[in-house]
Design brief:
Elements lengths: L9 E3 L5 H21 L2 H24 L9 H18 L4 H23 L4 H21 L1 H4 L23 H22 L3 H18 L4 H27 L9 H14 L4 H16 L11 H15 L16 E3 L1
Antiparallel strand pairs: 1-2
Length: about 325
C-alpha cells in the first residue's frame, strides 16, 4: 500500500517578512526619489534636513541600540564634521566627496581620545561623560573664533560639487538628490554592518557584558571601535548638513541636537536603524512643522515632550515595534 500523502501545511505569512520588507523599502526609496517632482522647494529642503538628521540618529543608534551605550554626545562629532566640511569647502575644495571623507575622518580621530575616556564607563556615567564631551565641543565652537568665527558661524560656503567634473548644485532639488544618494549608501553600509559577527559581539556586550568578557572578548576595544565608527557617521552627516545649509554655527554642536537625536532613537525603536530614521522624521516634523503652526506657535518643545510620553506608553518598542493587525495577515498553502 502506498503511503498516504502528507497533509499540506498551512503557513502564515507575516506582514513583516523579507518580501514585505523589500517591497516596503522599494516603495520608500521610490517615494523619496520622486519627492522633488511633486513637492515645493521648502518641503524638499525639509526632506534634505530630515535625511541628514536620520544619519545622526543612526549614529546614536549604533551606540544606544546596538551596543547599549546611551549617548548625548553625538552632536559633538556632528559639529566637528560640519565645521571641518565648512573649512574644507571655503579654503580647499568644493568637491563633496572630499568634504565627506575628510569630515568623517576628522570626526573619527576626535572620537578616539574622547571615546577612550567614555567607554571606560557604563550607564548613567557614560551618558554624563558624552554630555560633557558635547558641551566641550560646543564651547570650543563658540570660543575658537579664529577657526569657527565664534557665534557668527561660518557662512559664504560655496555650493557643493558632488564629484570632480560635475557642476555645482545650486537648486534645492539637486542638493536633495546628492543628500539622498549619500544617505542610501551609508544606510546600506550600516545595515550590512548589522549582520556581521562584529555586530553580534556588540549585541552581546549590550545584553551581558560580563559573560562576553568571560569568554575572551575585549569588550572595551569593541566599544571604542563602534564609538569611533559612530563618530565618523555623525561627521559625515555634519558634512551633508553644510551642503544643505551652506552655513554652520555652534548651535549645530549643541545639546539640543544631541537630545533630539536620542529622542528619535527612543521613539523610533532602539536597535532598529529604519526605526531611528522614522523617529528622526517624526521628531523633525513635530519640531519644525507642527511646532510652527499658528495654533501651537512657540510650543514645539511641549509637543516633543507630549510625543515622547505618548510613545513611551503606547509604543514600548517604538515605531519599529508596530505590527499590522492579525486580520490583515494573509495565509497561503505550502
Amino acid at each position: 500500500m502506498s503511503p498516504s500523502r502528507p497533509a499540506r501545511a498551512v503557513r502564515s505569512v507575516s506582514p513583516g517578512g523579507p518580501a514585505t520588507r523589500r517591497l516596503s523599502a522599494t516603495a520608500v526609496v521610490a517615494g523619496l526619489a520622486l519627492a522633488p517632482f511633486v513637492l515645493g522647494p521648502y518641503a524638499v529642503g525639509t526632506l534634505s534636513r530630515i535625511l541628514v538628521f536620520a544619519l545622526l540618529a543612526m549614529s546614536v543608534n549604533l551606540l544606544t541600540g546596538l551596543t547599549g551605550l546611551p549617548t548625548l554626545g553625538q552632536s559633538a562629532y556632528f559639529g566637528v564634521g560640519a565645521y571641518t566640511a565648512a573649512i574644507v569647502a571655503t579654503r580647499l575644495t568644493d568637491i563633496g566627496i572630499l568634504q565627506l571623507l575628510i569630515a568623517a575622518g576628522v570626526s573619527a580621530l576626535v572620537a578616539v581620545p574622547t571615546g577612550w575616556l567614555a567607554v571606560r564607563a557604563r550607564g548613567v556615567v557614560f551618558l554624563m561623560l558624552t554630555l560633557a564631551i558635547g558641551e566641550i565641543v560646543h564651547s570650543a565652537a563658540v570660543n575658537w573664533k579664529s577657526l569657527t568665527n565664534g557665534t557668527d558661524g561660518v557662512s559664504g560656503i560655496p555650493p557643493v560639487v558632488p564629484l570632480p567634473g560635475m557642476p555645482a548644485l545650486e537648486l534645492d532639488g539637486l542638493v536633495y538628490f546628492y543628500v539622498l544618494a549619500v544617505f542610501l549608501l551609508l544606510f546600506a553600509a550600516v545595515i550590512r554592518l548589522g549582520s556581521t559577527p562584529f555586530a553580534l559581539a556588540l549585541r552581546g556586550i549590550r545584553d551581558n557584558e560580563p559573560r562576553m568578557k568571560a569568554i575572551g572578548y575585549p569588550t572595551r576595544r569593541y566599544a571604542l571601535t563602534v564609538y569611533c565608527g559612530a563618530g565618523a557617521l555623525a561627521g559625515a552627516a555634519g558634512a551633508l548638513w553644510v551642503s544643505v545649509q551652506r552655513f554652520v554655527s555652534p548651535g549645530d554642536a549643541g545639546f539640543e541636537i544631541a537630545a533630539l537625536a536620542l529622542l528619535a532613537v527612543v521613539i523610533g525603536g532602539s536597535g532598529s536603524m529604519w526605526g531611528a530614521c522614522a523617529g528622526a522624521a517624526l521628531v523633525w516634523l513635530t519640531r519644525d512643522y507642527l511646532g510652527n503652526l499658528e495654533a501651537v506657535a512657540g510650543r514645539g518643545p511641549l509637543l516633543l515632550g507630549l510625543l515622547f510620553v505618548i510613545a513611551v506608553y503606547t509604543l514600548p518598542r517604538g515605531l519599529a515595534g508596530v505590527r499590522l493587525p492579525p486580520q490583515l495577515t494573509r495565509k497561503r498553502t505550502a
